Amino acid sequence: MDFSFNQEQREWQMKARQFAEEQIRPISLARDRIADAASTWDWDIIKKGSKLGFRTLGVPKAWGGPGADLVTQCIVMAELARGDSAISKAFSQNWKWSQLIAVVCTKDQQERFLKPFLADDTYMLGGARTEPNVGSDHRMTPNSDPKTGFRLKAERDGDHWILNGEKTFIANGSVGKLFFVSARTDFKVPVTEGSTEFIVPTDTPGFRIGKKFNKAGWRFYQNAELIFENARIPHTNIVGEVNGGWKARTSDPSQFNDLELAANAVGVCDAAVEAIMVFVKKPGRGGRTPADQQRVQLKLAEMHMLTESLRAYIMRTAWERDLACAGDKVQAASANAGLVMVYSQEVIQRVTALNRDVRGSARGVMNASADKLERDAFIWTHLAGDSLSRIKTIKKMLR
């Protein structure tokens, strides 16, 4: 099986690698050290990356976007994450939602939301499901219990819907211009049958941004509360049908969310491996290098093996999802997208821990870059639900 990149994929890889090296990496540690969570964001880097196509990479060519396939998207995510994992995620967060607009939304919605997104380098997108009392249970919701799932309420008022409640830890929350918001429109049935998906611009009356969260890792990436106080949303902003929100959100066969996070993880591992190989070759006392020690060599080998195994799994899975998006029913049934996300958590945390371990055991000092990589890796423990809920994707193999 040939997984060599084509010319277009290599060009995107080199463009992303150069941008990460020349633009992202020089600002990464400085942004991470800013104490105020809302101030870690840098519009300048977003604008620069947007002009190169990194914000709009998932928009189909029919709409004037790059129309990159999932293999290409994974390549770009990994390269950007080598410079900074959180900055990479700030860009890729837009791909799944712009793709959803292009594939699932009506012509009117595409005109109203996709065109402005393409035209504005500061137009960021986000999706809102998580609530203060609703987290990973919306990933594996007990289908028979109406009391589970999100509680944000939406009530019909003529040609509008009135939303009340809040969402929390929302991606691009304090910087987004448009959000896909999941709300309950029928509390008498399970959330999979009684929820509706709304498109909500940030200038919507009754909608405001709340707290910006201060995190140990991914500090550049903005997570915030979204607060709805009698927010009025036009009926024309519903994605799909009333009470069809679950279907609208799951109609995309790419399973991009899991694949996105796994691809980002391999970029962090690449950064850790690259950095540690430079470190272990520097002579210490007596002229010996850490690389001369067998125990260090064994740890380096493990870092390399884990990183390359994750990369291979990601590329295989991205190839599968591209086929699934093209209509291949066999590949559509694969559980690999969920499983590679689970595996990425194990790999990224082990590789970044080994990076810190080799540095500490060799010379007894810590390194700011190694510390940041490990703090960013910790985020994988609870991304898209906790690790226990994610492993339940094995259910797909038992059907």
Please provide a written account of the structure.
With 399 residues, the chain is an alpha+beta fold. The protein folds into three domains: 7-123, Butyryl-Coa Dehydrogenase, subunit A, domain 1 (Orthogonal Bundle); 126-249, Butyryl-CoA Dehydrogenase, subunit A, domain 2 (Beta Barrel); 253-398, Butyryl-CoA Dehydrogenase, subunit A, domain 3 (Up-down Bundle). 48% of the residues lie in helices and 14% in strands. It contains twelve helices and eight strands. It has helices at residues 7-32, 43-51, 70-83, 85-104, 107-119, 245-250, 256-279, 294-325, 329-332, 336-363, 368-378, 387-391, and strands at residues 125-128, 153-157, 160-171, 178-184, 195-201, 207-212, 223-234, 238-239. The strands form two sheets. The protein has a four-stranded mixed sheet. A hairpin with a 2-residue loop joins strand 2 and strand 3 (160-171). The radius of gyration is 21 Å and the shape is globular. It starts with 6 loop residues before the first helix and ends in an 8-residue tail after the last helix. The relative contact order is 0.12.
